[in-house]
Amino acid sequence: QDLAGNDAANISNRNVTNNTPSNEGGGGGSTTNSDTTPPSIENISIDKSTLKIDYTENISSSPTPDFHDFSITTNGKAIQGVAASVKNDIATVELQEAVSFSDTVLFTYKGSIGGVKDLAGNKAQNVTDKPVTNNTPDPTPPILESAEIVSETITLDFTKKLIAKSGINLKDFTVLVNGAESEIFSVLVNE
Fold this sequence. Notes:
By secondary structure, this protein is mainly beta. 0% of the residues lie in helices and 35% in strands.
């Protein structure tokens, strides 16, 4: 029925298009798979030992791709995967060791029999030495390089760029003038 309570007309002998992917079965009839395009890589990133491969379409999680199919090279050293998982269009691979924030990272995928497939069963192509975006944070804290006072303004220069954040606590800073504590009215971070 529609919202007004009208009954739908009877339907009989009507052709129906079967769009069920061939790997899920088609209810006994012949199934034609209209998706013949394999998934391709859109982006690859790494954060420490977690590698994320973002594909152009959702990929099958059954079976989960073999983690042995994924590896990276960093500064000439190969690092293998130890676990893999899939969610929507992203394959996540845990590596046997972490990379440093300054490492240049290259990705290689050599699909085994199962390998990465889209939901229609199209296998992803192998890739070799594809550049990876390294999102591993720099563990080095900023170090005070110099301090300068002009009138009532003190400027502190650090070895690294600082991130301005709201809610800077003025009590985190102490300024002494001739041995006596001076009141601080504001702190500003210039990015």
